[in-house]
Automatic annotation (TrEMBL), chain A:
UniProt name for this protein: Large ribosomal subunit protein eL14 domain-containing protein
rRNA processing recorded as keyword: no
Domain Large ribosomal subunit protein eL14: 45-117
Keyword Ribonucleoprotein: yes
Family classification: Belongs to the eukaryotic ribosomal protein eL14 family.
Pfam families, per the entry: Ribosomal_L14e
InterPro entries: Rib_uL2_dom2 (IPR014722), Ribosomal_eL14 (IPR039660), Ribosomal_eL14_dom (IPR002784), Translation_prot_SH3-like_sf (IPR008991)
Protein keywords: Ribonucleoprotein, Ribosomal protein
Gene3D superfamilies, sorted: 2.30.30.30, 6.10.250.2270
Automatic annotation (TrEMBL), chain B:
Biased composition annotated in UniProt, kind: Basic residues: 74-84
PROSITE patterns: RIBOSOMAL_L6E
Gene3D superfamilies: 2.30.30.30
Pfam families in the record: Ribosomal_L6e (PF01159), Ribosomal_L6e_N (PF03868)
Keyword Lyase: no
Organism of origin: Hibiscus sabdariffa
Family assignment from sequence similarity: Belongs to the eukaryotic ribosomal protein eL6 family.
Residue numbers spanned by region Disordered: 42-86, 178-197
Name of the molecule in the record: 60S ribosomal protein L6
Length: 134, 233
């Protein structure tokens, strides 16, 4: 099983620990065996340990340590945001965030919707069973 | 006392630094106009004789001297501060009651009373919670708000909820063995009318929001996997 995602300049990674938890950042340079220089459109460029990053499938085409403007343009060109939001990983995170932010009333409405859906499914199942058995 | 000025005068001698005034004694004598007062009274500063004091009642020697020294309790001038209402609780907020007979019920907040307790109503027709007082600490405020503009809660205060004082009945031997009083005291009709009046417009605005009526009728409970510190209310 060879590696599929490599640490390279332009690799988009997800921060999984610390102050910027959950943010998508771009590896902009490698400092040493353990640390990378990392940048994102809404944060100050800084170093991060690789242990804090989880690599994604997305890469963008940038020179080593680009200016902020070039970085933002390259991210727009590669359409990182939509690629991320359409990936299954990105969609899962969005759903998790939505579920965590649900109001007590929202949770109630969700419960009603689940019951309704289960009722419809059960009706269909009963119909199919009846057809099968007859 | 001489007549007081309408507005008290700020000191005519501004401080250069703390403890040192700008003007000397002689300059201040002139500024205060003491020379003019003296001139008006023929070179002498006017003196008023002390007014005769009202005769004080003669103090009687105390009847009782305690054997040991009795300590006087320390003076306590503390005044309790008014209870701060959590910013998440505004009129119309749906609250979850956490303790008491209506534990878990979702309830509409009306206003904070003078004692600091929260005035709350079910509405009664929806979940059986009447107009009631509730302590802020036993309540979770959700972010769901109900439109409360049609409700008039001015007549409710802490006195409205005071327990009724019963007249004491004289104890007779025979009465101990009989059933003493009726078990439940009936709710007076005017309180029922108040409840209906408050709930009428509330229920209309609640029915305007889909599922809100069922939401208020249901009780809140923690299910498996729900972590209260991670839930958003």
């Amino acid at each position: 099983m060879p590696f599929k995602r490599y640490v390279e300049i332009g690799r988009v990674a997800l921060v999984n620990y610390g102050k910027d938890y959950g943010k998508l950042v771009v590896i902009v340079d490698v400092i040493d065996q353990n640390r990378a220089l990392v940048d994102a459109p809404d944060m100050v460029r800084g170093q991060m340990n690789f242990k804090r990053l989880t690599l994604t499938d997305i890469t963008i085409d940038i020179p080593r340590v680009p200016k902020k403007k070039t970085l933002i343009e390259a991210m727009e060109k590669a359409d990182v945001k939509t690629k991320w939001e359409n990936s299954s990983w990105g969609r899962k995170l969005i759903v998790q965030k939505r579920r965590a932010s649900l109001n007590d009333f929202d949770r109630f409405k969700l419960m009603l919707a689940k019951i309704k859906r289960a009722g419809v499914v059960r009706q269909e199942l009963a119909k199919l069973k009846k057809e099968n058995s007859s | 006392m001489a007549a007081k000025r309408k507005t008290p005068v700020k000191s005519r001698n501004p401080d250069l630094i703390r403890g040192v005034g700008k003007y000397s004694r002689s300059k201040m004598y002139h500024k205060r106009g003491l020379w003019a007062i003296k001139a008006k009274h023929g070179g002498v500063f006017p003196r008023h004789d002390p007014q005769p004091k009202a005769p004080t009642a003669a103090e009687k020697p105390p009847k009782f001297y305690p054997a040991d020294d009795v300590k006087k309790p320390l003076l306590n001038k503390r005044k309790p501060k008014p209870t701060k209402l959590r910013t998440s609780i505004t009129p119309g907020t749906v609250l979850i009651l956490l303790a008491g007979r209506f534990m878990g019920k979702r309830v509409v907040f009306l206003k904070q009373l003078f004692s600091g307790l929260l005035l709350v109503t079910g509405p009664f027709k929806i979940n059986g919670v009447p107009l009631r007082r509730v302590n802020q600490s036993y309540v979770i405020a959700t972010s769901t708000k109900v439109d409360i503009s049609g409700v008039n809660v001015d007549k409710f205060d802490d006195k409205y909820f005071a327990k009724e004082v019963e007249k004491k009945k004289k104890k007779g031997k025979g009465e101990f063995f009989e059933a003493e009083k009726e078990d439940k005291k009936k709710l007076p009709e005017d309180k029922k009318e108040d409840q209906k009046a408050v709930d009428a417009s509330l229920i209309k605005s609640i029915e305007g929001v889909p599922d809100l009526k069922a939401y208020l009728a249901a009780r809140f409970s923690l299910k498996s996997g729900m972590k209260p510190h991670e839930l958003a209310f």
